[in-house]
């Protein structure tokens, strides 16, 4: 709520039907003045009507005090003012009642009807009193035009100004309430937008954390699994075949260096923003909105896979060769016209094959594996299928977190592709994926 709305609510709390205490005090003061006026005019009315003065004074006090309920029942105040007009009392009550009536939320036809009745009543009373004054010679100005002129002028002067002023004040009050409601509505909308922006920023941060974790998993899992396989082979042939042991040790070192290089590239992208990370003073950090920080973090993290030199399909032969060097029997077949794809498509296709081969190393060491790649008109398809592992095959006992298949499916689904995995009837395992070419 805006400050104006808070002040408005705080100021309310008057007695009975009044919204504010000052409104009650104002109406009480006006009712007191009106009662005094009507009581004084009741003395003259008692003399003209031939009734006791006390009766006229009490009548005037009761009539004038009706102004106290002008906010709750403005129609009653105007009707009382019209009723006591022949007694030449209630001047203040008539003006304030018409003003309150015109400023109220009542239908315009009711306001117009009561204002017209007050105008006609004042006109008749003024005409009669003016005619009586002319007869008694109270006016020095003569002529037939004087009585109608003074009657019309007096009635319009008493009726028109309060009605017009009340209509203006009522319209202005409604406009201010409408503006206050619009301001409150806009403030609520801004709060909702800020909350949604924070939710989107948090979602983006979570997505990028998942993406980075997937990249780290793909880079580390394959290299490390090959290193473990070669280390196991190195342990087995270290004494029997020193030359092969030296070769396996060299392969382990090469794969370790490749894994470190890829990790260094990814971490370098995370640490830098446009080439260099510039530290921000603590005061500036505190002044940055949380949503902006989240958006900036997400934007920086999204450059991990874009700025870093990701793998492509041209490196698929090398990937298969590394698995073959680790003792896996791998058969690679490519169907269709070889062509280039968008970087994210080639990187995803490479990671799917890489993770599938890694799973074979983990769970089916020694099993023959078939890697099939199909270049189609509007898509690229890949399939990695392994036969059941031989019973005498040794297990590398590689740990598995169960995130490989999940990561592959997330990658393929993000590009609008289809991913399917599961065991085969022969006892092996198959991983299939189809990715749109664009």
Description:
The protein is α+β, with helices and mostly antiparallel strands and 438 residues long. The protein has two domains: 3-192, no CATH class; 312-438, Histidine kinase-like ATPase, C-terminal domain (Heat Shock Protein 90, 2-Layer Sandwich), CATH 3.30.565.10. The chain is 66% helix and 8% strand. The protein is built from 14 helices and five strands. The protein has helices spanning 3-11, 21-49, 53-64, 74-84, 91-103, 108-136, 146-237, 242-271, 282-287, 290-301, 303-307, 316-325, 343-363, 404-414, and strands at residues 330-335, 369-375, 379-386, 418-423, 429-436. Strands 1-2-3-5-4 form a five-stranded mixed β-sheet, with helices on one face. A hairpin with a 5-residue loop joins strand 4 (418-423) and strand 5 (429-436). Helix 4 packs antiparallel against helix 5 and helix 7 (146-237) packs parallel to helix 10 (290-301). It starts with a helix and ends with a strand. The relative contact order is 0.06. The model is unreliable at 1-11 and 273-308 (pLDDT under 50).
């Amino acid at each position: 709520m805006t400050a104006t709305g808070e002040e408005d609510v705080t100021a309310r709390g008057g007695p009975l039907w009044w919204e504010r205490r000052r409104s009650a005090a104002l109406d009480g003061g006006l009712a007191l003045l009106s009662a005094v006026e009507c009581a004084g005019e009741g003395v003259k009315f008692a003399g003209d009507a031939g009734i006791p003065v006390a009766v006229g004074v009490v009548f005037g006090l009761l009539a004038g005090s009706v102004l106290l309920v002008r906010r709750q029942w403005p129609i009653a105040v105007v009707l009382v003012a019209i009723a006591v007009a022949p007694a030449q009392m209630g001047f203040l009550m008539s003006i304030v009642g018409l003003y309150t009536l015109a400023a109220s939320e009542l239908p315009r036809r009711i306001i117009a009807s009561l204002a017209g009745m007050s105008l006609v009543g004042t006109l008749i009373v003024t005409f009669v009193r003016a005619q009586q004054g002319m007869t008694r010679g109270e006016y020095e100005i003569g002529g037939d035009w004087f009585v109608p002129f003074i009657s019309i002028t007096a009635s319009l002067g008493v009726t028109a100004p309060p009605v017009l002023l009340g209509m203006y004040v009522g319209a202005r009050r409604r406009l201010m309430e409408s503006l206050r409601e619009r301001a409150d509505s806009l403030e609520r909308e801004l709060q909702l937008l800020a909350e949604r922006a924070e939710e989107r920023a948090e979602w983006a941060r979570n997505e990028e954390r998942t993406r980075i974790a997937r990249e780290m998993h793909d880079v580390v899992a394959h290299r490390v699994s090959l290193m473990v396989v070669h280390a196991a082979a190195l342990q087995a042939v270290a004494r029997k075949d020193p030359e092969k042991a030296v070769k396996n040790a060299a392969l382990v070192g090469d794969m370790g260096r490749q894994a470190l290089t890829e990790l260094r590239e990814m971490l370098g992208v995370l640490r830098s923003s446009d080439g260099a990370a510039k530290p921000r003073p603590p005061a500036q950090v505190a002044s940055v909105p949380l949503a902006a920080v989240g958006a900036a973090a997400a934007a920086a993290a999204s450059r991990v896979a874009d700025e870093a030199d990701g793998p492509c399909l041209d490196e698929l032969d090398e990937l298969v060769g590394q698995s073959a060097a680790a003792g896996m029997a791998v058969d690679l077949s490519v169907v269709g016209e070889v062509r280039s794809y968008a970087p994210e498509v080639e990187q995803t296709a490479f990671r799917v094959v890489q993770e599938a081969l890694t799973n074979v190393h983990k769970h089916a060491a020694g099993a023959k594996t078939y890697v099939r790649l199909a270049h189609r008109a509007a898509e690229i398809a890949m399939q990695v299928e392994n036969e059941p592992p031989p019973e005498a095959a040794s297990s590398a006992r590689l740990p598995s977190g169960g995130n490989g298949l999940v990561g592959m499916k997330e990658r393929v689904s993000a590009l609008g592709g289809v991913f399917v995995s599961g065991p085969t009837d022969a006892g092996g395992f198959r991983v299939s994926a189809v990715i749109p070419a664009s």
